[in-house]
Amino acid sequence: MKRRKERRRRMEKRRKKKRRTVKRNQRRRMIRRKERTRRMAIREEKQDEKKETSKKSKKSKKSNKSKKTKKEKKDDDKKDDDKKEDDKKDDKKDDEKKDDVNF
């Protein structure tokens, strides 16, 4: 009888202990799961921010490439003017040659 009681008591203790550990593990699992989801959300937000900033930087790079400085614009204008003048001169020469041929 005594042995049975002792054995029963030991078994009860063991069950209680197991129950405690199971509950503790469940709590830990839940906490880990919450932390994991929180970390994932933060990581996704950071990635979204990186994507937005990279898009902005790409846009700014593109716009910077298309923008010219005042000096470059003046140089381009001069080149265009020179080309137009050369074309006019060439046209005049061609016209003179045609006139010469006609006479």
TrEMBL record:
Q: Where is the composition biased (Basic residues)?
A: 1-40, 56-71
Name of this chain's protein: Protein CBG18178
- Show the ranges annotated as biased composition (Basic and acidic residues): 41-55, 72-103
Q: Where are the stretches annotated Disordered?
A: 1-103
Domain of life per record: Eukaryota
